């Protein structure tokens, strides 16, 4: 009898707990509205909304390759399954045309859609929650004045129980902290503006912060480096790997122009970020740079000294293992296994990276490249295999891809040479498997085909948003 009472008590506790969770997780439907007329929105508000949408990189995630801008359908691979970006045009049936401003603000602030469904954190509501009502109003005005596109996103491919939206409420209970950004009164206005944009709409930590086993950003490791779409997102805190320390000026230039003369060219998922930031007021990009530079902190005297030594080295580099002196004559080294990487570098890389031609139209001297210091060779592999395509219709940096001529063994030899020659870090573990995985991922679904272009024009005055 006593055992029965204990079991009944446990069942009662479980039912009460389940009821409490359901009460916490349940969100009401917000009534639909008649689609708004574009002319009803203040043009100045729409313009500011366009700038905010560019800072938030909205089109990049909500546009499928070859699809209509903001019409959704982009596959977002996660460790838990594939999530498809939704249609955020004002189409009344497949988009957000029947969403009121209150419904839109709830999605941004709480991660809940108009019908009361919890949104998956692939939509970074944990950052967007910091956005003010004023900026949400501008974003709403911008989105509601886009061209309506009828496009139904594919169903998400997630296993049970992750395919149950209410399960996201449990994730939120553990990791989500709702609330508008609160200024730090010990900092100035520019710093606070940068923190608001970087932590909010810019959601920099979504890529540049490592994640735990449940996909949440690790607390205590803010900006310590992460992964995005098969690329490494390098640390942008005091652990920055950049051989030449970033400054507010160099970060501003990079964010606005997509390149910087001693840091190189934006590539991978960072390229469309800079393409978008080039279309917003310069003071917004500088504010973000001010905040990020402060998180990085002042470089140590040792790091400054190393940077000065690197900057003092000749602009050109002769692949040392490719030539050898025979008396007074310099002759090519044979492509033996020991020299294979140097020979490949001399043939495929040196003519751009060692010619002394400045960035963005010349290759960055690799002794200045953060990629040579990364914990994995993912970024060099991506760039070597698939290059850097030029911006469509504009002058800009470009690099050919070598996927068709360098097999995995040649890639391993080249990477070993580059790592040992241009950095003081230990050799990368055998990169053959990572190279093969990146090739397979590219062939299966080209997640690097970003709708706004994968590179930025060298002249920011030529840059326009995709909408």
Structural key phrases:
40% helix; Cytochrome Bc1 Complex, Chain D, domain 2; 467 residues; mainly alpha; 3 domains
How would you sum up this structure, described in words?
This protein folds into 3 domains: 157 residues, no CATH class; 108 residues, Cytochrome Bc1 Complex, Chain D, domain 2; 146 residues, Cytochrome c-like domain (Cytochrome Bc1 Complex, Chain D, domain 2). The strands form 4 sheets. Strands 1-2 form a two-stranded antiparallel ribbon. About 5% of the residues have low confidence. The termini are far apart. Strand 7 and strand 8 form a beta hairpin. The protein is mostly helical.
Strand content: 5-15%
Elements, N to C (H/E): HHHEEHHHHHHEEHEEHHHEEHHHHH
* Sheet with most strands: strand arrangement: 1-2
Gyration radius, rounded: 25 Å
**What is the overall shape?**
globular
The CA-CA distance between the termini, in Å, is: 71 Å
Give the integer mean of the pLDDT values.
87
Task: Give the low-confidence spans.
Answer: 321-333, 446-454
Largest sheet: 2 strands, antiparallel
Output the number of helix runs.
18
In total, how many domains does the architecture comprise? 3
Structural class based on helices, strands and sheet pairing: mainly alpha
- DSSP helix fraction: 25-40%
User: How many strand segments?
Assistant: 8
């Amino acid at each position: 009898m006593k055992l029965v009472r204990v079991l009944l008590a446990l069942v009662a506790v479980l039912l009460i707990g389940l009821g409490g969770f359901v009460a916490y997780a349940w969100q009401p439907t917000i009534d639909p509205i008649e689609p708004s007329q574009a002319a009803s929105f203040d043009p100045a508000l729409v313009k500011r909304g366009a700038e905010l949408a560019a800072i938030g990189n909205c089109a990049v995630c909500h546009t499928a390759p070859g699809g209509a801008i903001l019409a959704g359908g982009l596959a977002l691979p996660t460790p838990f399954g594939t999530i498809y970006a939704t249609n955020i045009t004002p189409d009344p049936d497949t988009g957000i045309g029947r969403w009121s401003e209150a419904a839109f603000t709830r999605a941004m602030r709480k991660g809940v859609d108009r019908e009361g469904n919890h949104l998956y954190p692939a939509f970074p509501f944990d950052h967007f929650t910091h956005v003010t009502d004023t900026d949400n109003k501008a974003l709403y005005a911008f989105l509601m004045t886009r061209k309506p596109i009828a496009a139904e996103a594919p169903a998400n491919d997630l296993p049970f129980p992750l395919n149950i939206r209410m399960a996201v409420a449990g994730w939120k209970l553990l990791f989500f902290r709702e609330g508008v950004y609160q200024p730090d009164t010990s900092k100035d206005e520019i710093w606070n503006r940068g923190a608001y944009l970087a932590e909010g709409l810019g959601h920099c930590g979504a890529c540049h912060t490592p994640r735990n086993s449940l996909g949440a950003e690790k607390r205590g490791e803010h900006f310590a480096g992460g992964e995005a779409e098969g690329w490494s997102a390098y640390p942008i805190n005091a652990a920055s790997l950049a051989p030449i320390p970033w400054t507010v000026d160099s970060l501003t230039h990079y964010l606005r122009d997509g390149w910087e003369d001693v840091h190189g060219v934006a590539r991978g998922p960072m390229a469309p970020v800079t393409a978008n930031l080039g279309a917003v007021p310069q003071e917004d990009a500088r504010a973000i740079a001010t905040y990020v530079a402060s998180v990085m902190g002042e470089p140590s005297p040792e790091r400054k000294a190393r940077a000065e030594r690197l900057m003092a080295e000749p602009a050109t580099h002769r692949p040392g293992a490719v030539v050898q002196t025979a008396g007074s004559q310099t002759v090519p080294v044979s492509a033996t296994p020991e020299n294979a990487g140097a020979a490949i570098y001399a043939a495929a890389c040196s003519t751009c990276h060692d010619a002394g031609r400045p960035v963005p139209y010349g290759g960055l001297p690799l002794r200045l490249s953060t990629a040579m210091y990364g914990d994995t060779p993912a970024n060099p592999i991506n760039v070597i295999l698939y290059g850097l395509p030029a911006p469509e219709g504009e002058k800009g940096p470009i690099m050919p891809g070598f996927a068709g001529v360098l097999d995995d063994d040649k890639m391993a030899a080249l990477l070993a040479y580059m790592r040992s020659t241009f950095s003081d870090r230990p050799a990368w573990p055998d990169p053959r498997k990572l190279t093969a995985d990146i090739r397979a991922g590219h062939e299966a679904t080209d997640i690097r085909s970003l709708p706004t272009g994968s590179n930025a024009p060298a002249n920011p005055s030529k840059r326009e948003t995709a909408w």
